[in-house]
Structures are given as structure tokens and as C-alpha cells.
Amino acid sequence: MYHSYGELQTLRGVTLAAEPGEVLCLLGPSGSGKTTLLRIAAGIEPLDRGRLVLNDHEIAGPEVNLPPERRGIGLMFQDFALFPHLTILDNVRFGLTALSGADSRREAMAALERVGMAEYAANYPHALSGGEQQRVALARALAPRPAVLLMDEPFSGLDSRLKDSVRAETLAILREARATAVVVTHDAEEAMRMGDRIALLRDGALVQLGTAEDLYHRPANLFAAGFFSEINVFDAVVSGAVAQTPLGPVTTAGLADGAEVSVAVRLPGVEITETPCGVPARVVARRFLGVEELITLAVAGGDKPIDARIRAGQLRPDARDVSVTVNQRDILVFERNG
Questions:
Q1: Which of 12, 34, 81, 176 could potentially form a cystine with 184 if both were Cys, beta carbons 3.0 to 4.6 Å apart?
Q2: Hey, is 118 helix, strand or coil?
Q3: What is the rounded distance in angstroms from the CA atom of residue 19 to the CA atom of residue 197?
Q4: Which residues, 6 or more positions from 317, have their beta carbon under 8 angstroms from its beta carbon?
């Protein structure tokens, strides 16, 4: 599908499919087209070119454009969008207009029961915590039993301590309901925690689609590698199936001599020891991060410092001259013109 705002093209030939019961995460930086895709699916934003199909029925395209209320798609907003003047029960009943009063009440209570919020049915949103409001918003989105649930950065408003538990609860509820969900996030770890598959977007185009393992271990390019882990990057030229880097030679099987490459090394793959071996380096900065330390190193032959993440306490506090080796599993090589 394609979409533009005036001269600005926001989606460029994106093709995606969410399977029944799947949680598909749309991942990417700001401006990559994630929310635009969600708004098009919900019917809030028009589609310039392409087709949108739900259960083999076209709901948007050259010949048809169903209004949002006829699409059978639920939308959960980033700020929950609960009505402050309505009780929790009436908030959840709000989208059940096709049902009688008694039926809508029964369905709303069933949805609240599912998210563990039935006892708060008579309360108002202001009396709830952020996590509780998030669960009510999820109940409201699930109550009409939509074919697909769209979630736009649903956990971004929660503090870091609460986020993990609410995210796990939400995923469990989606699994129990066997709901098909499309979740927008800019956080790679969140996408890996939630998604059965992840669609990585950049500048309105699809960079890569696959499982968390696919995107982490086999990134399509340097952008994908850097989105899923912190990396050091070295530019090099292949000679004799080897690229020379400040951290030592890297094999480049399958690449011709003279090929220009970017060698990415994940930070946890940079191993540091005070025993002489590997590449000599000097510690120029270190930052304690709890379980880990972030170490910045100057390496002979390198024109810029490199970073490493090691277990806290692994190096003596006054360690300066060290040796560096690299775990081969944490090295990725990309052609710069590929």
C-alpha cells in the first residue's frame, strides 16, 4: 500500500499480512509509517493506492472504503481515551450500540472479568492507576469481539516498573481471547517480548519481516542490526576473504576482493580481560549500570573509541590496560552498496 501527506510519501509499497490469532508488531523509529499503517487499517486515514483485506473481504481499495464502524476492527489508543464522565462499565459498553441494554451490560462485564477489572465496574477512570486504566481500555477494545485489534504504543504512558507486568498481562489476555493484534512500538525489546512476528519499517518502507530470532540473528542490513542491539561499526575493504578491523580480521566468505563492507560488532560480544591476549586496549571511560558496566575503550589502530558491555565487577576498579577479543557470534558483515 501507498500513502502520502501532500508531497511527503509516508508509505512506499508496504505489503503485510497478520495471521489469525497472531500478534504482529510494527516496529521502527518515529516517522517510519507505523501509526499511518494503523490509521489506514482502522479507517481513520484514506489509502492512496493498494488494497486492505480482512478475512478475504476487501474493506479498502480502489472500489470500496468501508467506514471504521463497519470494519470489525478494534483500536486501542496510546492515551487509553477513556471517557472521564462515564463509569468503567459504561466506558466498556460504549462500543456495544448494536446490543440491547441488558446484553451490552453482560458483554461489558464479561470483558471486564477477562481483564480482572469487574470489581471496578462502578468506578470512574480518575480513581484508577495507569495500569488499571490500560486494562479497561483493553476490555473496551475487546468487548465488541473485533476480527483484529490495533494497538498504538499501548504501554508508552506507563512507568518502567509497571510496564513489564502490564505488558505480560495484556499478552496473556490476547492469547486467551485468541485475538489477532497489530501492535505499534518503537522499542525493539517490547516487539521481541510481544510479537509472534515483527515488521521493521523505515521511511515508509518495509525493511524486514520475521520472528524476533530472524531479525536479531539475521538482520537484513546495518539499520536492522543497529535497531535490535547496540553495535560498534567499522568500515573496511575485503581482501582475500578478510576485512581488517581495529578488533582484528573478520572473515567475509562470499564477498569479492575490493568490496566495501561495514562490520558490526555487538557490544556484549566485545570481551575484555586483564590477561594479555587479543588486541591491546585502554579503558577511557566506564559507567556502572547495575548488573552491567558500559566500558569505552581506545584500541590501537582505531580512529574512534569502541564500547563494550560487561558484567559488573568483572574488571578491577582501577583497570586501565586491558586486552580485547570478540565473540564471533556477535559479528555481522554488510556490503555498503548492498
A1: 34
A2: helix
A3: 10
A4: none
275/112 Cα distance (integer angstroms): 60
**pLDDT reading at 338 higher than 70:** no
Question: Which of 142, 151, 152 has the alpha carbon at shortest distance from 117?
Answer: 142
Cα 90 to the chain's mean position, in Å? 32
Question: CB-hemisphere CA count at 13 Å for 74?
Answer: 25
Question: Residue 266 belongs to what domain range?
Answer: 229-335
Confidence of residue 326 (pLDDT cuts 50, 70, 90): very high
Residue 162 DSSP SS3: helix
At 325, list the grid cell: 577479543
Domain tally, the chain = 2
Which run of H or of E encompasses 297? strand 292-299
User: For the segment 195-222, what is each residue's pLDDT rounded down to a tens digit?
Assistant: 999 999 999 999 999 999 999 999 999 9
- 174, 204, 223: which is the final residue of a domain? 223
289: exposed, middle or buried (C-beta count within 10 Å: 0-12, 13-18, 19+)? exposed
Q: What is the CATH number of the domain that holds 167?
A: 3.40.50.300
How far from each other are the two terminal CA atoms of the chain, in whole angstroms? 24
Is the pLDDT higher at 130 or at 16?
Answer: 16
Helix intervals (H) in 115-255: 130-142, 160-177, 188-194, 212-217, 222-228
Beta bridge partners of 53: 58
* DSSP string for residues in 310-331: EETTSS-TT--EEEEEE-GGGE
CA 11 to chain centre: 18
Place of cell 493484534: 181
